[in-house]
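Retry 2 of 3 after timeout on previous attempt. Resubmitting structure tokens to design endpoint.
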């Protein structure tokens, strides 16, 4: 069997309605004319050469921006039978969201930027005050309970804690009611395969199931894809996917809500976190390298957080995480675990694959 056949044979045979429906919707995608298929419409990230970018590359410390994830090339664009690149509509309605320019930024720059934006948000003023307390007027400082005559150790403590504080501020600002923008089909853009290591071969597909641990029942549950697709309603959404490396894509996903899974298989009462893992993940040389992230349960319950089974109307390809991936548009791409094999609920925040590389584990956008 070829990989293609294996993938096809794995798809549940008894959910024709969803599949036909999704296929039909794909057929409804507007045709891209020859001019529109021009790769220039694919908005490749602009290369920004900053001192920091150079430093990051020279260090080559295995961090997120090293050659393990090469810059997107035109070849990374999915073949046109998956999704036809469609340029933004010529005339946008006034209130419609404009696409953000894709800007290449190294992770560190991006992290700082995210922080700055969080801080600029208003409540973030408290975090700014923590970092630069000695610049603020005395009455503001007193309100914050900070004495102006701080010694340098005090300042150092505040600066160190400012970094942690803005994750907290971001978390405090988080709301399950705040939706990320959704887009029209005409705004869909190509999305690259961003497996940091080697894309896994389809060997795991036929025996795949999702294991759940940390449940209220105290049991381990294994669900196959048929069960997941038949027992939960399907939600679809076209949302922006943002990678910390500085590219983003507008993509159309469908799958079940993480929230529905949580309701059907409730976690133990103390649980506040989910560890979402792909045990079939490979490193660059093809050796096993499990990929895992922490997701707080509030984020997991967000209505736009999906366990996606489909992309652009078709079952997920290996490149995008067949048969089930996390789609969490309120978080950076790196939290969107592909080829999930296991979800474990816990009271304490679990470890995150990227934490040793200096990433915040919050990774909100
Ligand atoms: N299993 C697994 N999931 C993963 C990754 C990975 O290396 N392995 N990379 C993450 C990163 S950094 C990004 S940006 C997205 C990319 O998703 P895509 O390949 O579908 O574009 O997947 C995320 N999920
Ligand atoms: Mo990423």
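Retry 2 succeeded. Sequence:
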């Amino acid at each position: 069997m070829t990989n293609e056949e294996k993938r096809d044979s794995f798809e549940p045979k008894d959910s024709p309605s969803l599949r036909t429906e999704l296929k039909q919707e794909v057929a409804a995608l507007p045709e891209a004319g020859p001019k529109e298929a021009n790769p220039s419409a694919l908005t490749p990230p602009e290369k920004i050469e900053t001192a920091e970018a150079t430093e990051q590359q020279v260090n080559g410390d295995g961090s997120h921006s090293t050659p393990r994830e090469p810059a997107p090339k035109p070849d990374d664009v999915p073949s046109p039978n998956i999704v036809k690149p469609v340029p933004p509509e010529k005339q946008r309605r006034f209130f419609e969201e404009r696409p953000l320019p894709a800007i290449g930024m190294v992770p560190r720059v991006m992290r700082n930027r995210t922080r700055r934006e969080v801080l600029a948000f208003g409540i973030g003023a408290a975090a700014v005050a923590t970092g630069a307390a000695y610049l603020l007027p005395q009455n503001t400082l007193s309100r914050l309970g900070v004495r102006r005559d701080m010694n340098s150790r005090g300042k150092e403590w505040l600066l160190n804690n400012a970094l942690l504080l803005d994750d907290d501020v971001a978390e405090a600002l988080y709301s399950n009611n705040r939706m990320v923008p959704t887009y029209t089909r005409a705004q869909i853009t190509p999305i690259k395969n961003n497996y940091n290591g080697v894309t896994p071969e389809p060997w795991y597909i036929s025996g795949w199931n999702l294991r759940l641990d940390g449940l209220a029942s105290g049991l381990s549950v294994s669900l196959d894809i048929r069960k997941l697709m038949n027992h939960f309603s399907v939600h679809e959404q076209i949302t922006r996917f943002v990678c910390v490396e500085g590219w983003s894509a507008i993509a159309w996903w469908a799958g079940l809500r993480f929230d529905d899974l949580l309701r059907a298989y409730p976690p133990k009462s103390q649980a506040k976190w989910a560890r979402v893992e792909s045990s079939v993940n490979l490193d660059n040389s093809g050796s096993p390298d499990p990929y895992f992230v922490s997701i707080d349960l509030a984020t997991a319950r967000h209505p736009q957080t999906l366990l996606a089974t489909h992309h652009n109307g078709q079952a997920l390809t290996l490149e995008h995480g067949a048969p089930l991936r996390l789609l969490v548009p309120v978080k950076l791409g790196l939290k969107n675990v592909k080829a999930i094999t296991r979800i474990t609920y816990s009271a304490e925040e679990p470890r995150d694959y990227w934490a040793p590389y200096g990433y915040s584990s919050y990774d909100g956008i």
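Attempt log closed. The chain has ten helices and ten strands.
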